[in-house]
Amino acid sequence: MVKKVVIANRGEIAVRIIRSCREMGIVSVALFSDADRMSKHVMLADEAYYIGPAPSSESYLKIDKIIETALACGADAVHPGYGFLSENTEFARKCEAAGITFIGPRAETIERMGDKISARRSMIEAGVPVVPGIERKLESVEEAARVCREIGFPVILKAASGGGGKGMRLIRCESDVEEAYTTARSEALSSFGDETVYIEKYIEEPHHIEFQILGDKYGNVIHLYDRECSIQRRHQKVVEESPSPFITPELRQKMGQTAVAAAKAVDYVGAGTIEFLVDKDYNYYFLEMNTRLQVEHPVTEEVLGLDLVKEQIYIASGEPLHLKQSDIVQRRHSIECRVCAEDADNNFMPSPGLINQVTEPNGLGVRVDSYVYEGYEIPIYYDPMVAKLIVWATTREYAIERMRAALDEYKITGIKTNISYLNAIMHTPDFVRGGYDTAFLEKNDEIISRYRKENQPGDTDEGLVEDMTMIAALVNWVMLEEGTIGTPIPQPTGTLNRWREFGKRKGMTGI
Ligand code: MV4
Predict the structure, then answer these.
(1) Strand, helix or coil for residue 119
(2) Which of 13, 35, 225, 459 is the most exposed place for a label (fewest CB within 10 A)?
(3) Which residues line ligand 1 (CB under 6 A)?
(4) Considering the domain boundaries, does residue 307 fall inside one?
């Protein structure tokens, strides 16, 4: 069994991994850059080591420095989290070469799935449905035009090394081909150092639904059901939920079996995700496989009541899966909102800076995977996501109500956040109905803006409000201490609530 784990990451996911290590009696080791000396993962870990300057290229992406640190502190495993080095084959290989367990799939699997063309080939071989298209690289504009005519417009050009939307170009007619081909290739080259592109039939307004899978070192694979991830903005997920409100129970079973077949085809070891596009007519197609723990993994944990990081560590330690497919039952509904330090009124510009006050929601069915605290300064160097708010409830309707209440309770001052934007999503009729697709945010932009305008607290200065309530609390406390006022006097409702909003609060308008 693994005894000491280096977490090659930062932020909420580093905190998340440290917590599972602590439960399991595993020593956790944090790594930090100059910008992260005061970060929560550093305070929470059993040990912490400095690895370099703030830019990730000089710290969290420094393969040799990280391995050197892991060896020096006597760690036997590395958890890469998501992003950074989590899908880097060189890192996975160098860890294993140094005798350190990489908590993730084999390097060969990361490589095979990282190349979207070879991933498509593997899936076709395994009998997994893929989007109609080609399984080779395009060699010329002429070839691109020919393939487009064969498949039929619209088509989409994608970078073989891509993923997450970069290097993609939609082609609606013959005259779009040349520019799309040229720009997709140059974007692919500058983003991934590889200009290889290929073509797929374009699926209009698809649903993005993914299946979590687990595979052990002995060829056993199970799936942990689905996550609906269609609420995205510029290829960034904003809200995720499980189970998907779109697919039927029959389709869910079929897609789960397909996900297991996909993972078995590549002898998958560890936790992974099979992403599918699902069209209006309920046809589903393999899109990509993610060979890492994902940001949205908590909704699966809340629905099923298990700990995916623990499962990853057991698998990496050589334990066989202790769960059978029949043990996996979707008992609850879960929703996750990504809370980001960004200005929803200004094109979602990152809003880093000093956090003044934080009140996180809690209570039954409410989970906050966060890493910020009062007085913490969010660095400019990394992702603006500061927390994930996750709720579970017995039904989807109750989960939405719980999420709305939790978002109402969530207060962060000093920086701008997208909390009111998330709350507006929870009140948007298309969301409440369920069955939305990847065009949801575009289609509902106006409804979301209007909801936010009508439901913002009045135009009080947030900082002033909180200063005044803090002063009121202080004066009251001093007077109590001095005996100027007697033992607790009845307060007018809400007087000392530092978060009292002076604006008019409207009822829920979503349903
Ligand atoms: C597609 C597609 C339609 N047809 N492929 C976007 C990110 C990358 N992972 C793949 N993406 C898409 N691939 C075909 N053949 C539409 C998208 C897409 C999308 C996918 C999932 C979630 C949000 C999206 C937003 C726009 C486009």
Answers:
(1) helix
(2) 459
(3) 131, 156, 163-165, 200-203, 206, 208, 232, 235, 277, 287-288, 438
(4) no
